[in-house]
Amino acid sequence: MINDNLDIAPRKTMTIEELKYLDELHEEFFDTNNQFENIDYNNVHSIDYTDKVSSAPNNHQLEDYAVKIAERKMELHLACLEILHEIMVKCDLATTIISTIPSYKQQELLMARYIEHKSIKEVCKELDISKSSYFKLHQRALKSFLDVQINTNN
């Protein structure tokens, strides 16, 4: 039975750690997707198996390996979808919060770094700033990221 009295509103705040966690999620997605793309049905060595044989595998063994490879591809595919979903949810929340920061330059920096997953070097080039300016602006942007949430929730 569903309790209609429960107030289940979507979360509207995000910590700096959660924002920075987006980087880790992107990396996890790229790693998992890379594993998925590198599984080769024609290469039985592309998957770990415990029952390795000393001679050439027979047809039954090849079928078993093909099934194991297909199962592993499915696991990796599902993992990629789960990671992508988490990235999308977190990026949506982060984008909403970032868009309320008064400084457009700070918005650009946070969007490029955490939503678009650009490297510090790429962000510096895109914003035409030095690395030291990046770090100063980044600190101010993170403070603004928290401040707009505090001001919104008060």
What labels would you give this structure?
Arc Repressor Mutant, subunit A, disordered N terminus, mainly alpha, elongated, 2 domains, about 150 residues
Quick check: average pLDDT? 84
Helix content: 55-70%
Return residue spans where pLDDT drops below 50 for at least 5 consecutive residues. 1-9
Number of domains: 2
Terminal CA distance = 34 Å
Total number of helices: 5
Indicate the radius of gyration in whole angstroms.
23 Å
Please give the number of β-strands. 0
What fraction strand? under 5%
Order of helices and strands: HHHHH
The oligomeric state is single chain
Q: What gross morphology would you assign?
A: elongated
What's the story with the biggest beta sheet?
Answer: none
Structural classification: mainly alpha
Short description:
The protein has 154 residues and is mostly helical. The protein has helices spanning 16-38, 59-98, 104-115, 120-127, 131-153. It contains five helices and no strands.
